[in-house]
Amino acid sequence: MGLIRPTNFIVPKGTLMMVGRLYTNMISPSGAKLWRRPKLQSEGVVTDIFAGKLVDTLHNDSAAAAYLMSGKYHSWGTTAGAEAATQTGCLAELYEITNSDTNRSGGTQTEGSGGYKMYLTSANFTCVYAHKTASDHGGTVKEWCLYCNVTGALGFDRALLVTPLEPDVSDILTSTYELTVISGT
Q: Do the domain assignments include residue 6?
């Protein structure tokens, strides 16, 4: 999962840039993976609310800092509406087996390596479609979101999947979100 520097726009020298990337996979109950390696599903910018909380944190706002430190809750949804920086989460969330009181899986949080400042969070989401197929719950999985809370709408990022997923009963959707902060451009 190396850094891919966007080439479709020019970043003024000295600009701090953040790029969010989502990698996914789907694992069947037998352990078979859809792809050999996690697939890059989305590469884009973070939400307005995330950017605002980052600025608030720099102004010594402890509540905003707590928000940023808790950005580890992964969720999936079925809506294919266009991404927008103003969105605060998934438009149609799904439920999971292992965390049935909420839609969101609490992920791990680590700091990346390799010369770039990188925040990583990963989670597994076990589908709760009891004896149903993807078509029984309203369609394929088309969106993914990262939140700072188990419930509520405080989203770091929302991504549309390049390749939508069609999970079956007890399939596990894996997600790894990589937020890279690039300085010295």
A: no
Tally of residues, the chain: 185
Q: What is the pLDDT of residues 37-78, one digit of tens each?
A: 888 998 887 888 888 888 898 898 898 888 888 888 888 888
User: Please, what's the b/e burial string for 79-109 (b: 16 or more CB within 10 A of its CB; e: otherwise)?
Assistant: eeeeeeeebbbbeebbbbeebeebbbbebee
**Type and span of the H or E element at 175:** strand 172-182
Q: Render pLDDT for 131-166 as a digit per residue (tens, 0 to 9).
A: 344 444 445 788 888 888 776 777 888 888 898 888
Q: What's the structural domain count of the chain?
A: 1
Instruction: Tell me the C-alpha to C-alpha distance, in Å, between residue 77 and each of 63, 68, 87, 111, 134.
Output: 28, 22, 14, 27, 12
Residue 98, domain member (yes or no): yes
Rounded to an integer, what distance in angstroms lies between the CA atom of residue 127 and that of residue 171?
6
Domain extent, residue 168, equals 18-182
